[in-house]
DNA sequence: CGCTCTGTTGACTAGACTCAAGGCTAGTGG
DNA sequence: CCACTAGCCTTGAGTCTAGTCAACAGAGCG
């Protein structure tokens, strides 16, 4: 992090995808947190059922939300990256209704509940940006329900890989960075088993759609993978300008 | 509907589950629509990809949202009942990213986009109530991802039946009204096939958990069905008071 | 009266899961 | 420096849940 860049800048950048905030709004938002922390991979940010007293802003790295069934099967319900506020649901309802954990080491800032709620009261433009963000999240959830409910394993995995690649690198990404998910985590995100994920990944790699080095996955041919995965980015609302790298 | 009750009263009742609105807020909300329309069963309210110019308020009856895959398989992603605003996503983004249709005949009121957006600008309490509503919706989406991704057919169907019963009739529902879903629609909501839904329903009926008359399903034993379905209503946020019948 | 839609049943198939074993890599402690 | 361990990945064999295909029954409707 460069000296001088405010800690919460990634949050502001993401919120401003739906339209610029005025200087007062931006300043008040940035004033909510001055310090960042680094979390290890696989650190727990929120636990299902526990009260939420602060909101975690993800400044870099990857995180995910998950729920478990009564038989202890885990489902990852969303992935998050730089610029996401992870706890808005818990913040508004007071209790987390799912787990939130880091996937990779992450830089985060914690925003206490009260000042944030207060800010939302005083700054309608910020409240609206948060709401819009929640609506886009919901759109992604709907697509995941479709993906998990109605697509076969190959299509389903291809779709997830496309979504993740596009969210990380944008639609015009060439080769794309390696994705930070283990096969077990991919299984939890797609509702498959790790064994089956392994076999499908081999098949995708054989078709030159992806490459695997050291276990990490790289998308080789996003357009063809998008065809295989029936991936249409409309639900991600790319009309909101892509995030600048940072 | 009694003469004199404002058309949008069901919407206000639902929004007020998260806390009362002041008189000004309530009056402005109610002023958004004076007329209701009746839609047939299976009527189309929004179509994937089309622009949204008005928001549909559901006053009575049932509706659902669905998406389809590239192979024309349909997934129902949410069910809606009295008091729900169906188009908030489309309203804020300008375009519907899924289909919305009625399940049963419905009374609805259409709220034009501009006055609603204007109201949200002027009335932060209403905006906040809408946002909270969206957050609760998102919580339900997450549970559906878990349900479809990680539970077997029997558990999955039982879970859906529990959720629907509780949302319609509340936690303390005795026998509950018949649910308005055909087996094909249950299949689309659970990611199963109609044939398999049929067989699982027979098994649930044999265990006296549900009854079927004229094809309509009634929950006989909600507590036991909740056990079978691993159903815990926390994600529906019942701490928001249940809707009064109406 | 025939058409369509929903529900039902049976026989068969297949996609994904389970179980089990073994390999590779990185980290740890002796 | 070398076992030893713990994750993660990989592979194979066998199983099973849920899907597919097909036919038919009953209700509602024009």
Could you please describe the fold and organization of this structure?
2 copies of one chain form a homodimer. The first copy, chain A, is of the alpha+beta class. Chain A has 9 helices and 9 strands. Chain A has helices at 9-15, 23-30, 88-93, 113-122, 124-150, 153-169, 183-190, 194-206, 222-228; strands spanning 37-39, 44-46, 54-60, 62-68, 74-81, 99-102, 106-112, 210-213, 216-219. A 4-stranded antiparallel sheet of chain A has the order 2-6-4-5. Chain A is globular, with a radius of gyration of 18 Å. The N and C termini of chain A lie close together (9 Å). Mean pLDDT of chain A is 92; it is low at 242-246. Chains A and B meet through β4, β5, α3 and α5 of A and β4, β5, α3 and α5 of B. Chain A binds a DNA duplex (30 and 30 nucleotides) through residues 152-153, 182-184, 192-196, 198-199, 202, 214-215.
Structural class of chain A: alpha+beta
Q: What's the oligomerization state?
A: homodimer
Please report the total strand number of chain A as a whole number: 9
Strand residue percentage of chain A: 15-25%
How many strands, what sense, and barrel or not for the largest sheet of chain A? 4 strands, antiparallel
| Termini Cα gap of chain A | 9 Å
Instruction: Please mark out the parts of chain A with pLDDT under 50 across 5 or more consecutive residues, or reply none.
Output: 242-246
How would you spell out the order of helices and strands of chain A?
HHEEEEEHEEHHHHHEEH
Q: Which strands sit side by side, in order, in the main sheet of chain A?
A: 2-6-4-5
Largest interface: A-B, 50 and 50 residues
Q: State mean pLDDT of chain A (0 to 100 scale).
A: 92
CA-based gyration radius of chain A: 18 Å
Q: What's the shape of chain A?
A: globular
Helix content of chain A: 40-55%
Instruction: List the total number of helices of chain A.
Output: 9
